Amino acid sequence: MSGADGADVDLTDPVLASEAELAFEGALRPRSLAEFVGQTRVRGQLQLLLTAATLQQRTPDHILLAGPPGLGKTTLAMIVAHESGRPLRMSSGPAIQHAGDLAAILSSLVPGEVLFIDEIHRMARSAEEMLYLAMEDFRIDIMVGKGAGATSVPLDLSPFTLVGATTRAGLLPNPLRDRFGFTAHLEFYDDAELEQVLARAATMLGLDVDREALVEISGRCRGTPRIANRLLRRVRDYALVHTGRADLATVNAALDLYDVDALGLDRLDRAVMQIILTRFGGGPVGLNTLAVSVGEESETIEAVVEPFLVRIGLITRTPRGRVATPAAWRHFGLSQGGAALPIDDL
Ligand SMILES: Nc1ncnc2c1ncn2[C@@H]1O[C@H](COP(=O)(O)OP(=O)(O)OP(=O)(O)O)[C@@H](O)[C@H]1O
Can you tell me which residues bind Mg(2+) (predicted)? Predict the structure, then answer.
């Protein structure tokens, strides 16, 4: 995807978000379940779980939040802590590469603390095993010494609530998954919900946006609040520099400039579709082949790209691989079995 200066710009890539954007994202996070838009079922389930724990004056059960990036897992973890009036400790799977890393965190938790572990499926196996006992009995066994003389010393922990987030619930071992009292599967947001997210963000930005402009952005943000907020900022920029107002024409011009198409497909989505349609005649194509072809991790394709493409009906998953649907051929203006376009032309 090319920006105005010719540099590659990917509005959907959280890694490329500037510090200002991250600060903006933080400021936008809803602080309570009532403020949290959409995910009605999950909100109701969480509300019940938290209220029951408060009535019984105990720590809420451990919670697993599963779903693609940007749908609100971190926000919900913060809300769990805030609504139950407990402190929050944040960590992530990649930062826990040894059991000792986890032991250090667990042993320093204050009573009732909420421990959020993002990308929990990426934690080291030895730490995962330590977590089983910690979640169940609020206890860990610490190994002292090495070899034949090693002994395990039990250490009692303060009661805590673990909130784990994962884009790949299927990768968690069963013993870990079973120890969560509640698993919430976050879904992509529908257009009406995204309009609410955008309207709220526009108010916080002090941006006067037409309703039809909001509708247009909500249809192009991959069902994802994080992307909705980011696109809104680019529309704000465009209005500031060029048009003076955030109307439909401004939205179309800004999003076209950043190569966000009518369905909200980004560069990686399009690259994946190109491979399936033009190199493999519509598929089936295996996950690893796709990942190698577009130069991405297969985990990213499976957790980020594929759920969205399936949701909007451009691909289906079959036992033999991913297959393009007739809607995909239409969207890219290609006829099934027709001449292949050069990969870079789509
Ligand atoms: N339901 C919602 N209502 C309003 N804003 C939301 C909602 N969900 C997410 N957001 C906004 O979207 C942004 C991204 O949310 P968040 O960081 O919680 O997503 P995430 O699922 O944890 O993503 P990742 O897995 O990439 O960390 C936040 O700035 C938040 O304000």
Answer: 74
Most confident of 144-148, 291-295, 336-340: 291-295
Pairing of strands 161-166, 63-66: parallel
Spacing, Cα 28 to ligand 1 middle (Å) = 9
**Interface predicted TM-score (ipTM) of this complex, two decimals:** 0.96
Instruction: Report CA torsion sign: 229, 88, 90, 65.
Output: negative
Token pair in block for residue 330: 């239409």
Q: Which CATH class is domain 189-257?
A: mainly alpha
Place of tokens 């257009």: 191
Q: How many whole angstroms separate alpha carbon 194 and alpha carbon 199?
A: 8
Question: What are the tokens at 275?
Answer: 């491979």
Q: CATH topology for 39-185?
A: Rossmann fold (3.40.50)
pLDDT in tens, 61-113: 999 999 999 999 999 999 999 999 999 999 999 999 999 999 999 999 999 99
Phi/psi of residue 127, each to 5°?
-70, -40
What length is written for the chain? Answer: 346
CATH 3.40.50.300 location in the chain? 39-185
**CATH class assigned to 267-345:** mainly alpha
Write out the H or E segment, with its range, that includes residue 336.
none
Phi, psi of 197, rounded to the nearest 5 degrees: -60, -45
How many A from CA of 225 to the centre of ligand 1?
Answer: 6
pTM of the complete model = 0.85
Report how far residue 99's alpha carbon sits from residue 28's, in angstroms, rounded to the nearest whole number: 35
Q: Which residue ranges does the chain devote to CATH 1.10.8.60?
A: 189-257
* Pocket residues: Cβ below 6 A from ligand 1: 14, 25, 28-30, 36-38, 69-75, 118, 165, 197, 225-226, 229
